[in-house]
Amino acid sequence: MEEKEEGVNLNWTLPVSSVQELVRQRQPDAVAPRYFRDDIVMAGHHRELSQGLPRIDLGKLMDPPSRSTELCNLHSACRQWGLFLLVNHGVLDEGMRMMKENVQGFVDLPHHEKQKSAQKPGSLEGYGQAFVISHDQKLQWNDMIFLKCHPAHARNLDLWPKNPPEFRIALEKYSEDMRKLAAEVVKYIGMALGIHEGELDLLTKSFGEGKYEVRMNYYPACPEPERAIGLLPHADISGITLLTECGNIPGLQVLSKDNCWVTVPPVPGGIVVNLGQIMEVYSNGTYRAPDHRAVVNKEKERVSIATFCYPSPSLPVGPSPQLLAATGLPPIYQTLSNSGEFLQCFLSHKLDDAVPFIDTLKL
Ligand code: OGA
Ligand code: NI
């Protein structure tokens, strides 16, 4: 069945060859011109600042005696960075390990086997690349498999790999764990913002019943890492995104408030949380949906798993009414009826992205 976001024609991608296959077959010692990213400043403005990135402990948020201090930390993390390392998150190791093993197992399969989950014309879902919309467009050093996981009726199971044999069970379990975790994390983000009672319940419930999509990224080793980019700078369109590293290879970088790319180091057992544009709008610009990107590595491949978490249609997407009342500030963004409409506007905007999408919502 062909997936279309009601009339929007950008939810699709042109097929391009797998970067993994290109590297495997040709073992290039240079990057092909289609992958040159000389338009992006790769050198300079880059810091290793692992010490400075905020770490948030979910256990401390859940425990009343330590909550208010940790909520202050969370508030400052969301304002300064829009990204933090979540530790003590309570997701069982077993599920995490099983997911990582199965994603790595999928990556390691022969190409023809992975092609059984290949994107179909007209859809972004499946194995391939994201948002390749023209034949002369520059490419990213990345293969991915993107699958809708929740609600269950949105799954396109024909694209869910049957191999490795436990892949489906692992993804089902993992995405369920991420759904529960996201609702919990969003509840505390709401509290940090000063939201309470009915509106906090609405917010939390909307994520509990929301939409969850998982993107598994594979970044092969790259002969000229400074010339190519794994993933272009972008701010996620989600409410929040939960990112798990499958190994110990750094690659994710976040743009600081003073415009430096800062490496987000893999933390064993940790999950990186970054706010998406829905939360930036909800917080009326108090919190950031940071630009981030993935750089590639000369020797090592890297695998990551990003879960995009969206609120259900029960939540209007606009500045929080309680926040506006409490601060007395005017809304800086329009309110759209729900995350579905928000996504449609985003996809139609992608045709002309000279202006950041979120700026098009400014009042
Ligand atoms: C994404 C993303 C970063 C990474 O998939 O949106 O930002 O490190 N991924 O893979
Ligand atoms: Ni992202």
End-to-end distance: 38 Å
Spans of at least 5 consecutive residues whose pLDDT stays below 50 are: 1-10
Largest sheet: 8 strands, mixed
Order of helices and strands: HEEHHEHHEEHHEEEEEEHEEHH
Shape: globular
**Mean residue pLDDT:** 90
Rg for CA atoms: 20 Å
Bound molecules: N-oxalylglycine, nickel (II) ion
Tell me the total number of β-strands.
13
Give the structural class: alpha+beta
Q: Give the strand line-up of the largest sheet.
A: 2-3-11-8-13-6-5-4
Q: Number of helix segments?
A: 10
Strand residue percentage: 15-25%
Overall helicity? 25-40%
Walk me through the structure.
The protein is α+β, with helices and mostly antiparallel strands and 363 residues long. The chain is built from ten helices and 13 strands. The protein has helices at 19-26, 58-62, 64-80, 93-107, 111-114, 167-192, 197-208, 277-282, 321-327, 339-349; strands spanning 46-47, 55-57, 83-87, 126-128, 143-150, 211-219, 231-234, 240-245, 252-255, 261-263, 271-275, 292-294, 302-310. It has an eight-stranded mixed β-sheet with strand order 2-3-11-8-13-6-5-4. It has a five-stranded mixed β-sheet with strand order 1-10-9-12-7, with no helix packed on it. Helix 4 packs across helix 6 and helix 6 runs antiparallel to helix 7. It is globular. It starts with 18 loop residues before the first helix and ends in a 14-residue tail after the last helix. Residues 1-10 have low confidence and may be disordered. Bound molecules: N-oxalylglycine (OGA) and nickel (II) ion. Nickel (II) ion is lined by residues 234, 236, 241, 292, 306.
